[in-house]
């Protein structure tokens, strides 16, 4: 039996450069992992089956699950016929902009690499992961990185200075396709990625706070006013800086002073059903 953790990610920056001929958007993102995890347990299964047992009834337990797709692809690539059972303990909110499914798929690849003793490197697993989804390669490595292309080209960066991250997910579903569909490049306010990278290299917490930016934030906020209300609330209760992650609807706040965390969490609990106070994760994954 193998256990593997699948951490959530947040976007410190998210920029969209345009639509590509293949239908994907060209993006530039700085992402980092936080210590909110799904937990994956891997065991054998009879008759060559891929079995998924999930703690969350809204997560599919068949081929639509990215964990299934990861196992299926890895088996085909490596010529393996063994069955496998995944027990998926979901802690990351689903369809939240926190890459929960992608991180589960990445954890499945890392875990199966150990379970089947394949000896693949993280680079090889990331290359396989890119076939499953654009965020999977980043999730294979974890840590902090600049992602380009459709998100699958990764350059590693230093982790942000340690601080608290408060995640708040309103009780609404956001379709990533809708958000991208309504995104208007001519009106976008692009984040300053060079300044964010410099802040990370210098361990400059205030610089990280100043340079948070997500071109999709105004698009999602226009569709769902709950997101704007949460951002306002989080700022009012005392977060140092606040941004929506991915295409939303989760909003995260950075907080350097531990004494303020409880106040912000308590304040948000009044009108947001799902609030987590977590830490930044420094290190990258190992195989
Ligand atoms: P991203 O930030 O990469 O856009 P997300 O955090 O917004 O992702 P997910 O939690 O990955 O979204 O879920 C999106 C959809 O993917 C869900 O509605 C679900 O049906 C499907 N899905 C497939 N596999 C999983 C999984 N292992 N965990 C959660 N959702 C999954």
TrEMBL record:
Signal peptide: none
Catalytic activity, EC: 2.7.1.148
Catalyzed reactions: 4-CDP-2-C-methyl-D-erythritol + ATP = 4-CDP-2-C-methyl-D-erythritol 2-phosphate + ADP + H(+)
Keyword annotations from UniProtKB, A to Z: ATP-binding, Isoprene biosynthesis, Kinase, Nucleotide-binding, Transferase
Pathway(s) the chain acts in: Isoprenoid biosynthesis; isopentenyl diphosphate biosynthesis via DXP pathway; isopentenyl diphosphate from 1-deoxy-D-xylulose 5-phosphate: step 3/6
Residue span, GHMP kinase N-terminal domain: 65-143
Family: Belongs to the GHMP kinase family. IspE subfamily.
Sequence positions that bind ATP: 93-103
Gene from which the chain derives: ispE
Source taxon at top rank: Bacteria
Leading EC class: transferase
Entries under Gene3D superfamilies matching the protein: 3.30.230.10, GHMP kinase, C-terminal domain (3.30.70.890)
Active site (UniProt): 9, 135
Role description: Catalyzes the phosphorylation of the position 2 hydroxy group of 4-diphosphocytidyl-2C-methyl-D-erythritol.
Transmembrane segments: none
Pfam hit, one: GHMP_kinases_C
GO MF entry, a single one: 4-(cytidine 5'-diphospho)-2-C-methyl-D-erythritol kinase activity
Matching InterPro entries: GHMP_kinase_C_dom (IPR013750), GHMP_kinase_C_sf (IPR036554), GHMP_kinase_N_dom (IPR006204), IspE (IPR004424), Ribosomal_Su5_D2-typ_SF (IPR020568), Ribsml_uS5_D2-typ_fold_subgr (IPR014721)
Domain GHMP kinase C-terminal: 196-272
Keyword Zinc attached: no
Protein name: 4-diphosphocytidyl-2-C-methyl-D-erythritol kinase
Biological process terms in GO annotation: isopentenyl diphosphate biosynthetic process, methylerythritol 4-phosphate pathway; terpenoid biosynthetic process
């Amino acid at each position: 039996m193998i256990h593997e953790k699948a951490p959530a990610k947040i976007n410190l920056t998210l920029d969209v450069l345009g639509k590509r001929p293949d239908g994907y958007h060209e993006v530039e993102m700085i992402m980092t992992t936080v210590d909110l995890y799904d937990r994956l347990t891997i065991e054998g299964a009879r008759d060559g089956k891929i079995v998924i047992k999930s703690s969350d009834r809204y997560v599919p337990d068949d081929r639509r699950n990215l964990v299934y797709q990861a196992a299926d692809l890895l088996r085909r690539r490596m010529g393996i016929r063994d069955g496998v059972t995944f027990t998926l303990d979901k802690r990351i909110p689903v369809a939240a902009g926190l890459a929960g499914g992608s991180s589960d798929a990445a954890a499945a690849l890392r875990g199966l690499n150990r379970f089947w003793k394949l000896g693949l490197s993280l680079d090889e697993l990331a290359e396989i992961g890119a076939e499953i989804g654009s965020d999977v390669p980043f999730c294979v490595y974890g840590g902090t990185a600049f992602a380009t292309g459709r998100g699958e080209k990764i350059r590693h960066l230093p982790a942000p200075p340690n601080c608290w991250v408060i995640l708040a997910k309103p009780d609404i579903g956001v379709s990533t396709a809708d958000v991208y569909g309504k995104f208007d490049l001519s009106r976008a306010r692009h984040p300053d990625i060079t300044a964010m990278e410099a802040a990370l290299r210098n361990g400059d917490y205030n610089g990280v706070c100043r340079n948070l930016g997500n071109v999709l934030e105004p698009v999602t906020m226009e569709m769902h006013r709950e997101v704007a209300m949460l951002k306002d609330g989080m700022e009012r209760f005392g977060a140092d800086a606040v941004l929506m992650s991915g295409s939303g609807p989760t909003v995260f706040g950075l907080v350097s002073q531990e004494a303020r965390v409880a106040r912000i969490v308590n304040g948000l609990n009044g009108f947001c059903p799902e609030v987590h106070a977590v830490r930044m994760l420094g290190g990258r994954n190992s195989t």
